[in-house]
Amino acid sequence: MIREQEDIIIQTICRFFIPFMQVYGLYVLVHGHGSPGGGFQGGCIFAASFILMAILYDLSEVKRRFSEKLNVVFFSLGVFIFVGVGWLCLLLGGNFLDYGKLSKILPADPVMARYYSIAVIEIGIQITVMAIMVSIFVDLLTGGEHEGAAEEEDAGSNSK
Amino acid sequence: MVIVAAIFMVAGLFVFAIATIGFLRFPDFYTRMHATAKGDTLGTLFFVIGLALYYLHHGFCWLGLVQGIKLILIAVFWLLASPTATHALLRSAFESDLSPWTKDGKAIIEWPPKRRDK
Question: Can the peptide bond before residue A107 be classed as cis, meaning omega within 30 degrees of 0?
């Protein structure tokens, strides 16, 4: 039996929890160097808040806040940040992801450049992991039919 | 301070042990969830408070206080999340017509239960 609306207790507590989960995901991200954590874990926690939102309200609520177009933009952006920093190191004369070479363009010595560049990489990983996790969950729920597929099909048939 | 922390942790372990016994010995889903939910919540609360006190055993310092506050936050969130998760599990079990165990095997509630909606 599928209910129209979730129970009042679950609704109240989950609505209270979702912002805290998102803040905790960012906390795990920024503590990635010195303690357990990092981009992947933070991204999973962040995606879990969207999954909780989908369980709590509806899939359409998640799609309203985090549409699939935005999703595609986000996971491409994360990969772009990762590979961009890697290629920047390559262009500055080092190996791929050789962060120490970034001290030529950053106002820092090689050690601190390495330290902060890892944070940038982690941000890219977080964005990608969050978008992909939400995308996997949405695909599992809808059977892989993305939004606007019907309209695209109509438009295609009209043009023919 | 170490003694107080140890007392809290032992109390937490005791509650965990009772929860485990309840989980192993009770007959059906509802009673098992009843035992483990309460035991987990209270046991985690005791244990985390004990750990937070243990961070202060070198004397009062800023780092220990921060760690203690983080642990207390974990306890507060656990205190909210665990009963809610149990509630969701039990509610969905009840609504998918899982009948509670009785000694003579008779149903003690009128079945199907009256739906809230529809």
Answer: no
> Domain range spanning residue A56?
8-148
Listing DSSP states for B23-71 in one string gives HHH--SHHHHHHHHHHHHHHHHHHHHHHHHHHTTTT-S-HHHHHHHHHH
**Which residue has tokens 């507590």?**
A13
Q: Look at residue A154 and tell me if it is in a domain.
A: no
Is the reported ipTM for this assembly greater than 0.90? no
List chain A residues with CB under 8 Å of B84. 9-10, 13-14
Label residue A159 by pLDDT band (50, 70, 90).
Answer: very low
Which residue of chain A is at minimal alpha-carbon distance from B96?
Answer: A1
A17 with B117: Cβ contact below 8 A: no
- With respect to residue A37, please indicate whether it lies within any of the assigned structural domains: yes
Do the beta carbons of residue B79 and residue B72 sit within 8 Å? no
Number of domains in chain A: 1
Confirm whether A2 is domain-assigned: no
Count of Cβ atoms closer than 10 Å to residue A47 Cβ: 23
